[in-house]
Structures are given as C-alpha cells and as structure tokens.
Amino acid sequence: MTDQTTLDILLLSLAVIGILVALTILGVFLRMRVPYGGTNPVIEAFVVRVHTWWGLTIILALAVLSGRIGVILLFAFVSFAALREFLTFTIKHRADHLSLVIGFFVILPLQYLFVALDWTALFTVFIPVYGFLLLPIVSAFRGEPDKFLVRVAETQWGLMICVYCISHVPALLTYDMPDGSDRSILLIVFFAMVVQLGDLFEYYAGRKFGRRKIAPNLSPKTVGGVVTGVLAASAVGAILSWITPFGVLGAASMAALASVTGIFGTVVFAAIKRDRGVKDWSHLIPGQGGFLDQLDSVIFAAPVFFHVTHLVWG
Amino acid sequence: MADAKLFFRRLASQSVGHLLALAARFITAVRADWRGIEPIAKQRVYFANHVSNADMPMIWTVLPGHIRRQTRPVAAADYWLSNRLRAFVGPEVFNCVLVDRRPEARTEDPMEKIFEALDEGSSLIIFPEGNRNMTDDPLLPFRAGLYNMGRLRPHIDLVPTWIANLNEIMPKGEVIPLPLICTVTFGAPIHVEEGEEKDEFLKRAADALVALSLPDEGAGS
To answer: Tell me, what's the pLDDT at B217?
Structure first.
C-alpha cells in the first residue's frame, strides 16, 4: 500500500475511535443518571453494543491496514462463522452430510480464493451456478428423497447469503480505481461505515419517532426511522466522498442505496428468525447475538453495492 | 529424572487438552447453558445423552478449568485402549475412568471403579444409555448405574446434561465433522428420593434430560 492510503486508513480509524470515545462517554453519562443501585436495560444494552463496536472497529482496522490478504482472510472467517450459524437452523438429513461438508470446506475457500485471484468472471457465478448444481447432485446420490427440495433449497440459500453475499465485501478490492491507485480498499471502509451508521441512526430514530411500521408483523422498524437512517447514511457518505471515486453526489446516493438495501435485509432476516423461532443466531458477539445478527444489513447491501460500483463507475 | 518425565507427560497432556478444546470451539462454537446449576466446583455426576464420540469432549470443553480438573469421564476401556494415541488421550488428557463394557471379558466390576473415583472426590461424566443412540427417539433406556450412584451416594448431585446438535455435526460413519453450533445445557440436579424404585427414578432422570432439549421458556434474554 502507498503511504497515502495507509495514512488515510489511520485517519479514518482515528475518526471512528473518536466517535466511539464519545459514545463510551455518553454511556457513562447515561448510567450516571440512573439512581444508585438501579439499572436501565436499554442503557446497559447500549453500553454492551459500544464495547462490541470497539472490538469490531479494531479488528476491521487491523485487517484493512494489513492489506488485501488480511481483509480476505477476515471475511472468509466471517463467512465460515455465518454459515455455521445459518446451517444450524436449516432442515437437513444425514444424507446431506457430504454436500454440507463440501459447502464449508471446498466451496467457501474456493470462493475466497477466486476473490483473492481477482477472477471476477468466476466468483460472481461460482456459487449461483456451480454450487447450485453440484450440491443437489451430491445429496441425491445418497438417495434420501424425504424433504429433498426443502433441504437443497435451504442449503443453497445459506451459501448464497453467508458465502456469496459476504464475499462481495472483500470483492470490492478487485475494483480498479479510475486513477489507477490502490485505494479500492478504502471502498470497504466506506461501505462498512455507511451501512453500520445508517443502521445505528435507523435503530435509535425508529425508537424515538415514526409510527407507521414497514413490516408490522416482523419488525419494529418504522418509516420515520428508515428515512432518518438512509438520510444519515447519505450524509456520512457525502462526508466520506473523498475516499471514493463517486464524487459527493454519487457517494451520497451510493450510501443511501447501501443503507436502504441493508435495512431491508434486516427485515428479511427478522422473517427467517421468526420462521425458525429463534431470537438470535448465536451468542458469539456480546450484545448483538450472532455474526448474522450483526451482519444482516451488510449481507444484503454488499452484492448490490459491488455491482452498481462496477456498472456505473467501472 | 522420573519427575522430569512426569512433568513432560503432564505438559503434553495439558497441551493436547487445550488443542482439543480449541478445535471443539472452532468447529462448533460450543457453549454452556447453565440452566439449572452454577459453574462451581461441587461434586456432581453429569449424565448426558450420547449420540457421537464427540459428546464427551464437548462437555469437557465447556467445563471451566477448575471444574474440569476434578471431573472424570467414565468411558469404555475397549475404545480408549485400542491404540497408543487413544491410550494417551483417554486416560491422560481426559483423565477417564476406564470401564470394561464386555461382561464376559472383564476382570473388575465397573461400578466398583466408579465408586472408587466418587469416593476420591471426583465429579463424573456418564452416559447412562450405555451406547450411542442411533434411533430417532431422543434417548435409549437408561442402565441401572445412575440409580445405584444416586442411591448409594445420596449427597452427590446428579446433573442432567443435554448436548444439542451433535448427531448432525458428526453422524455415525462420517469422518469430517460439520461445523454447526453446539450447546451443552446443564439442568437442575436430581436425587434418588426416599424409597424410590429403580424404574421410577430412571424415568424421572430421562424426562429431566429430555426436557433440556426444549428451549428455556422461563428465561428472558
């Protein structure tokens, strides 16, 4: 990486750390107002979340600073953890064991290898075409017809969500910047920040105002909260436009696009969790549930952000 | 000299133990749900469902170090002594109480070895079904051993321990484990009641264990 890119990454990390310091102090302040001996669950949840954001920020910053390989390995691990959570709750049979093992130990590493090798023509079709066709064949050879379609469909959904979609975050590295620089890694920072901050604003704004629910049976999200979240994300996008090739207006619209697809992704995941009767996917991320609870918005936003970036600015 | 050799064997068994626990955590992100007991060092018999050879290492992994040190799994001698590697891992890493399952071949009474371990103050991990459960039923009928432990050592807590998902992680005959989330749930301890018959108690124990396979209705999160 050039010195300028490294410097910009450090600068952005410092800015995020600044925000986290402010949020940490806010947490202390909010706790102080609770009478001695009492506790407020909303404030405690907020404090735990801030702790988790510290961890996530530090891990992402270190990965980005270490360069391409660090980022790809980090997201490959995230895919692994997400797929592990997803497939824990899908319908499967002993006959699917081999195809699921192939999903974890062959398809997942190959997908990230293709991303690392910059083979765009392959990693964009590998899982939707080859994984899609191969895994049902392997399952069928074991000869168990019971719920076959449901089993192969849920497995494929898991691979699309947890491997294909998540791999499109590090796939942003394959984007060739118009000025020929190595700054495509900063697109990942841009993407992660607008989606996460959009989520954050949507979450707290939705609690304060907005009454009309966007999906009344599934999610407490309100129209007012979503609009606030998307507007906040595009404002953040405009501020960060200097690290993108999009220009100020372009960066604001890309941020809005990422934020709105992300928020809709969260609603889809709420439907899946409701279907399976679980509140959280796992307990691995304190205060957030599992990896999938933390990443549902990123998962939906990543492929769209990747394709529009290539389509409009490619 | 003998001390040094012992030291290195201990070091090796500790390191292998940590590696196995790490592997278990990497593959299954295994987590303990202390639903009915606290994780404190109290003498207990953890009795668990048995679907896979990975069951015992899962329970062992989620026990905190100080409890792990005083807890000994009861395991089959014919399995753990079948080769040199297993003969190291079973008795030295897991500190197993090895019992012979084959009545025709054995020279000592398995229950005697189990009571010996209990009287030394160890906690035990046992699988009262005796064999791995390959059926669609949640549990096979329990053997009498659990009842005898509860009757003859009434002060020891018998803790139902449910291991979820392992039959999908490692079905019989498969070599590669599937990475899925595994949860080990510890229920409230039970004891043999005054005058309780064997079958009555074993049914109550089995019911307490199966009840843990359902999500906890009472707990908010």
So the answer is: 60
